[in-house]
Q: What sequence folds into this?
């Protein structure tokens, strides 16, 4: 994307005011998307964004500037602005020699989306529309979205690092509205992966459409969700977002470092039920949150955060890791070149356990069985978190019975982690966009079917 | 004055649409902003980010088919490539007779509001040092107000100067610019293992509008008053929501009154025009011509003048928000409610929702309510609510109200109802607060909600 000799000169210019560390992050992102609604392909959209973000670190302070101009002149201007913005000042001459790092990919892309014609992409939307409407006349509205992105990134820093990555993602989503005597209900299904157009071999549009349509139809018969504490069984895949909220964010070293995490100072301690192991794995092949290098040029890793209930490590970005004299865990990410990187999750999951999921249900006299969750959020300082339940059923006498309307579950992270009392031997993941401090990045989460002895469900039925 | 590089936005937009071919409609939206963000921590600058962002979004319509393309650049060659890409994309849409750009006739249906003063030249002359000093001052104030405050999670200053222009090949052109400045702080308080956080902020059109002392006081007051909060038993009870929570709630109603959702059946209000949806005292309008509203704007994102749009009048559903497409398709006509960034074609959205205030102050609402819950913040607004079914269930932090005053704090509970029921059971307070975002805050009393706790 940019010549190594240019990068070396830009980094040297960035350090001219006495910075300790300088970095150029360049990005060339190509996106294409299409939206179907009401049986019509509403529009195709394509977009392109190129530019570089330059940061200069001096002590604990960071100066940052970005530019859409990737010429040497443009980069040097941004470097000067970043250097000026770093606190303090001074003068220094540093030379930087870059060494290219070999990047190891977890998987190959079979079919780059830009090689697929727009008509073929539109076809996926139309197939979804037909399949969803075939689920029943109650389906009144179908919307479907296709989106692909190709993100080429380059990172060069004053430690001499030079690394590049090429990240390809495809996502497909369907949302349906069903109408019945009880009113209107909507439901959503949206798989995604760090994968090319071969995505559709794994997730045919019809499959995604049927899941969304059936969910909306099921909800027409839903009754108000219970109100109060009760056992919660999370179906495989559905509950990953809970771990993302219940402990994932609290294990991000930036939040820990500012005293804003309930998990601060608890390394080596029992923080969860012995059934709980939590892994954040940026190398999980084809998953939505996967990459070869993070946005600071660090190699993606599989990091064990909690092992059999014991807190083993936090997630780190380069800056905070350097300050602590330890390596980054490959979790430094940013939404685009226009943002500073920070500690972010990748694919966060609880590995499979030993119990047959059917036994977990039959062993639950009364509770709620959650099949799909919406997003969630957490206050990392207190550990209190919520997540929305978008498909759930009552469990009565060990059997799944009536569907329930949408409601929120609320709990406290450290407490809920200790209340997990059954972990199944199945597994699935779920893609989403994680928002933190105004930046969204693709992540996934995963888990086997499991049970939480009690959580508060925010329904309206007493 | 202008900010950033010297591209004349209106001229660039006009130049692009001049490339429209016979039988083709072209619309160009160009935007340029200059932003500063300062974060401080522990008495030091954590980061200073100074940046200009620019972009162009181009819509091409050929034979009722729409294509869109965007680029993060105002470089003339890049913008022309983007036009070619949008033109190509138009070949793959499904024809729709209602698709089309805004016409001069549609734009002339109301006059543009005069004198909306959304830009402050002086913001460009504020030094980075002054902005850093404000953020440091904010952090220091927040730490010094109460001994129970044990830290500041974040203290930030941010501002932006945004200019944009729209031109279309039917001869419509408009330009807009606005400045904003804000500072915010999240304080942490607690003893032992308990830590509670809350947020305070100040916002305005320029640096001089900011009141860091008030932001710090709000954050500290809201943090220390919830210390010692507990989960309480589940109950049905009246709920009073803070003006900040009110703006979030109005955001949901605004989304449900979006004409796009209405014509596509994706709203609880679809097919209910003219019906009763609220109590007699409930009147909700969207009024971007109101100068005090942060979302005020003379034109919408298709170049149509904005106006006051009544949505619910005396409890009756009277209107929806429309852009050109939804306005034509529904027959209601555009209400000047197109909203967009440069990365997408115009959608529909509210800019300045406002409930007609009632005549009860917050103190009076509290004494009216009896035993009730005061909610100062909610969580999960986008995961536990649904504007199609109306289901509403969110995490809540607040305090019990007893004998008309705030009593013990409450945590880790949810409040639930339906959006339909809330509107029918709502008393609007009298004290309005002009807040950032697309709605005006006012305290609200909801007659009954389900609180879920232990």
A:
């Amino acid at each position: 994307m940019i010549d190594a000799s240019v990068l070396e000169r830009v980094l040297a210019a960035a350090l001219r005011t006495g910075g300790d560390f300088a970095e150029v992050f360049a990005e060339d992102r190509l996106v294409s998307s299409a939206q179907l609604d009401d049986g019509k392909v509403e529009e195709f959209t394509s977009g392109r964004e190129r530019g570089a973000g330059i940061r200069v670190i001096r002590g604990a302070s960071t100066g940052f500037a970005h530019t859409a101009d990737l010429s040497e002149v443009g980069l040097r201007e941004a470097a000067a602005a970043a250097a000026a913005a770093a606190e303090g000042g001074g003068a220094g001459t540093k030379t930087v020699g870059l060494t290219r790092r070999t990047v190891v990919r977890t998987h190959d892309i079979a079919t780059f989306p830009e090689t697929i014609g727009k008509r073929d992409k539109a076809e996926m939307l139309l197939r979804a529309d037909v399949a969803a409407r075939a689920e029943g006349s109650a389906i009144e509205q179908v919307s479907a979205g296709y989106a692909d992105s190709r993100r080429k990134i380059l990172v060069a820093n004053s430690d001499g690092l030079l690394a590049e990555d090429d990240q390809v993602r495809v996502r497909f989503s369907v949302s349906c509205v069903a109408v019945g005597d009880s009113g209107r209900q909507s439901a959503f299904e949206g798989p995604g992966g760090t994968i090319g157009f071969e995505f559709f071999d794994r997730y045919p549009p019809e499959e995604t459409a049927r899941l969304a349509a059936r969910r909306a139809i099921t909800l027409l018969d839903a009754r108000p969700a219970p109100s109060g504490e009760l056992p919660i069984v999370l179906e495989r895949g559905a509950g990953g977002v809970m771990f993302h909220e219940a402990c994932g964010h609290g294990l991000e070293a930036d939040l820990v470092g500012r005293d804003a995490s309930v998990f601060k100072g608890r390394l080596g301690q029992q923080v969860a039920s012995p059934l709980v192991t939590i892994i954040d794995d940026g190398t999980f092949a084809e998953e939505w949150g996967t990459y070869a290098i993070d946005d600071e040029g660090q190699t993606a890793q599989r990091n064990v955060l909690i092992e059999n209930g014991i807190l083993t490590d936090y997630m780190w970005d380069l800056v905070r890791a350097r300050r602590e004299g330890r390596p980054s865990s490959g979790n430094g990410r940013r939404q685009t070149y226009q943002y500073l990187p920070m500690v972010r999750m990748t694919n966060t999951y609880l590995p499979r356990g030993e119990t047959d999921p059917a036994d977990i249900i039959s062993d639950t006299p009364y509770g709620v069985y959650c099949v799909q969750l919406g997003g969630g959020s957490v206050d990392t300082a207190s550990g209190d978190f919520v997540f929305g339940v978008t498909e759930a059923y009552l469990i009565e006498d060990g059997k799944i019975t009536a569907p329930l309307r949408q409601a929120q579950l609320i709990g406290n992270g450290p407490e809920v982690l200790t209340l997990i009392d059954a972990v199944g031997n199945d597994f699935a993941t779920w893609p989403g966009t994680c928002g933190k401090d105004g930046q969204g990045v693709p992540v996934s989460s995963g888990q086997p079917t499991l049970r939480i002895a009690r959580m508060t469900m925010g329904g309206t039925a007493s | 004055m202008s900010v950033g590089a010297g591209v004349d936005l209106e001229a660039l937009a006009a130049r692009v649409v001049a490339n429209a071919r016979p039988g083709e409609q072209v619309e160009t939206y160009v935007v340029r902003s200059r932003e500063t963000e300062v974060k401080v921590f522990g008495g030091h600058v954590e980061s200073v980010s100074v940046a200009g962002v620019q972009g162009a979004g181009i819509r091409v319509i050929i034979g009722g088919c729409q294509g869109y393309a965007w680029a993060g650049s105002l470089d003339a060659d890049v913008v022309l490539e983007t036009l070619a890409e949008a033109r190509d994309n138009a070949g793959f849409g499904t024809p729709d007779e209602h698709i089309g750009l805004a016409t001069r006739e549609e734009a002339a249906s109301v006059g543009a509001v005069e004198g909306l003063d959304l830009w402050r030249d002086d913001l460009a002359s504020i030094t980075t040092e002054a902005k850093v000093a404000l953020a440091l001052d904010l952090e220091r104030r927040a730490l010094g107000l109460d001994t129970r405050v044990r830290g500041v999670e974040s203290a930030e200053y941010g501002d932006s100067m945004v200019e944009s222009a729209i031109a279309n090949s039917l001869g419509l052109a408009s330009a807009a610019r606005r400045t904003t400045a804000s500072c915010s702080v999240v304080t942490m308080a607690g003893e032992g293992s308990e830590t509670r956080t809350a947020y305070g902020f100040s916002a305005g059109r320029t640096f001089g509008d900011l009141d860091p002392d008030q932001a710090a006081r709000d954050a500290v007051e809201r943090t220390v008053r919830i210390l010692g909060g507990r989960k309480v038993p589940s109950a049905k009870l009246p709920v009073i929501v803070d003006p900040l929570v009110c703006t979030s709630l109005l955001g949901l109603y605004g989304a449900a009154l979006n004409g796009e959702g209405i014509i596509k059946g994706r709203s609880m209000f679809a097919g209910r025009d003219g019906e009763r949806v609220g109590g007699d005292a409930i009147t909700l309008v969207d009024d971007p011509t109101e100068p005090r509203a942060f979302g005020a704007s003379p034109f919408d994102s298709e170049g149509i003048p904005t106006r006051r749009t009544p949505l619910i009048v005396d409890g009756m559903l009277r209107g929806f928000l429309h852009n050109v497409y939804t306005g034509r398709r529904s027959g209601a006509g555009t209400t000047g409610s197109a909203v967009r960034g440069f990365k997408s074609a115009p959608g529909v959205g509210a800019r300045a929702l406002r409930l007609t205030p009632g005549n009860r102050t917050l103190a009076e609402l509290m004494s009216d309510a009896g035993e009730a819950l005061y909610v100062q913040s909610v969580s999960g607004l986008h995961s536990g609510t649904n504007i199609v079914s109306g289901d509403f269930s969110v995490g809540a932090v607040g305090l019990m109200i007893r004998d008309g005053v705030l009593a013990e704090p409450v945590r880790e509970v949810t409040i639930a109802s339906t959006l339909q029921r809330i509107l029918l059971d709502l008393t609007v307070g009298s004290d309005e607060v002009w807040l950032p975002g697309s709605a005006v805050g006012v305290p609200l009393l909801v007659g009954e909600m389900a609180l879920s706790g232990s």
Remarks:
- The longest helix of chain B spans residues 128-144.
